[in-house]
Amino acid sequence: MDPDASLLLLCFWTWWALGFGPSWVCCPAPTQPHSIKIEGDITLGGLFPVHSRGPAGVPCGEVKKEKGIHRMEAMLYALDQINSDPYLLPNMTLGARILDTCSRDTYALEQSLTFVQALIQKDTSDVRCSNGEPPIIAKPERVVAVMGPRPVLSPSWWPTSFASLL
């Protein structure tokens, strides 16, 4: 395996294992499991079924190596190719925020709400940190486009409900 590819794969698994989420400077914030964030001037979203459905009460199950991981790797590869070509987007880089749907339409819809967080005004008037100060909330980046999801059963409400969020 190419050393650069090995490093990229190691970084990918580290990002995936650590997750990311909105950051509260003085108060602890919940992390967002099953996600990847790559910084860039323009952020693209990705929703992929990286895991299968989990058992009752657990959203995610086993890793789907074929259909889930490959789709996500295709997006990461495309971003890498575009960002490494100085003629395609000069002086600009594409970033990504990739979320796992866990092969569940309802979980995918829940995950997709993170893409619209940048458009929502947060009311922190009644939230206080342990030192009495109001929290400082880092505003999430605005996602300009989303790749995926491709639901297994393709329910009729899916395109309308997901598109209306964005």
UniProtKB/TrEMBL annotation:
Q: What is its main location?
A: membrane
Q: Which PANTHER family match?
A: METABOTROPIC GLUTAMATE RECEPTOR
Any signal peptide, and if so, which residues?
1-19
This entry's Gene Ontology molecular function terms read: G protein-coupled receptor activity
Offer a single GO CC term for the protein. membrane
Q: What is this protein called?
A: Receptor ligand binding region domain-containing protein
Write down a Pfam family by its short name: ANF_receptor
Q: Does the keyword RNA-binding apply?
A: no
Where the record annotates domain Receptor ligand binding region, the positions are: 70-150
| Coiled-coil zones | none
Membrane topology annotation = Multi-pass membrane protein
Entry keyword annotation includes Membrane: yes
> What UniProt keywords are attached to this protein's entry?
Glycoprotein, Membrane, Receptor, Signal, Transmembrane, Transmembrane helix
Location in or out of the cell: Membrane
